[in-house]
Write a structure and sequence with these properties.
- The protein has about 270 residues and is an alpha/beta fold.
- The protein has one domain: TIM Barrel (Alpha-Beta Barrel), CATH 3.20.20.
- It contains nine helices and twelve strands.
- Strands 1, 2, 3, 4, 5, 8, 9 and 10 form an eight-stranded parallel beta sheet that branches. A two-stranded antiparallel ribbon has the order 6-7.
- The longest helix has 18 residues.
- The structure holds zinc ion (2 copies).
- The site of one zinc ion (ZN) has 5 residues, from loops.
């Protein structure tokens, strides 16, 4: 049994049909102590078919109802996954100041106003140029924004783009990736281990092992683990492998958040009953 899952979506996200209650009930049946509901807010998302915006008055009403209804069974944390783009400074600051988030994932889903998911971003770029540009943009966001606790699914760009070889060789991007890791550590921000890579058949978590090892070696300590589930059956997917990997790397703690304040709990107790 696991302690928590720190990344999941409900039907409040444009790309999920799962009612919030179905996610909560699945988490309870797995015996989790906590979940962070991290629905998408992506201001100015280029694909108008996916308006990743949330009406928080409605959201908070639903969230508070379930938080109270299931309070004896599970702790619900008000999370959000915010899509960073450089021109959104004010919108993102306003959102985070307005609502009492427990936990915020900062993610890059759009680079140079072009969507990664639908492939627009990759048009006219070599694989190397596309990956480099993505990492540059991530670094810029980490340096520019303060409104996040961990960075989400670093290196998930390998999911997209029409390239035959999906492998990202850490060595080829080491300079920029190391800058990203140092910037996170310097700002007191953390890194997410996103287990969805295995669901996508990529044979790795996001970020890949070599990047997590470097983060650990550089002194990075803030790690959260999230499935990025968009349906109940994916909650905690591949968590056994994730804990084992972190433990083998020498990580001793996983981070949980309340009111955006980190608390460190041992990996042993995270996985224990
Ligand atoms: Zn994401
Ligand atoms: Zn997500």
């Amino acid at each position: 049994m696991f302690f928590a899952d720190y990344h999941m979506h409900t039907s409040f996200s444009s790309d999920s049909d799962a009612p919030m209650e179905s996610m909560i009930l699945a988490a309870i049946s797995l015996g989790l102590k906590q979940i962070a509901l991290t629905d998408h807010v992506d201001f100015d998302y280029p694909d108008v078919a996916f308006p990743f915006l949330i009406d928080y008055d409605e959201y908070l009403e639903t969230f508070s109802y379930y938080q109270n209804k299931y309070k004896d069974q599970i702790e619900l944390l008000l999370g959000v996954e915010i899509g960073f783009q450089p021109h959104l400074k004010h919108e993102i600051a306003d959102l985070v100041n307005k609502y009492p988030f427990d936990f915020i994932i900062g993610s890059t889903h759009v680079v140079d106003r072009a969507d990664l998911y639908n492939g627009d971003f990759f048009k006219g770029k070599t694989q190397k140029n596309a990956y480099l540009r993505y990492f540059e943009d991530v670094l810029h966001s980490i340096r520019t924004f303060d409104e996040f606790n961990v960075y989400g699914h670093l290196d998930y760009i390998i999911r997209y783009g029409d390239y035959t070889n999906k492998v990202l060789s850490y060595k080829d991007y080491q300079n920029i990736i190391d800058e990203i890791l140092k910037a996170l550590i310097h700002k007191g921000k953390g890194l997410e281990v996103n287990t969805s890579g295995h669901r996508y058949g990529l044979g790795q978590f996001h970020p890949q092992k070599a990047i997590l090892e470097t983060y650990h070696g550089l002194g990075g300590e803030i790690i959260t683990i999230g499935s990025d589930a968009h349906r109940p059956q994916d909650i905690c997917a591949c968590f056994h492998e994730a804990y084992k990997m972190l433990k083998d790397m020498g990580f001793k703690y996983v981070t949980i958040f309340k009111d955006q304040k980190p608390e460190f709990i041992s990996i042993e107790s995270y996985t224990k009953n």
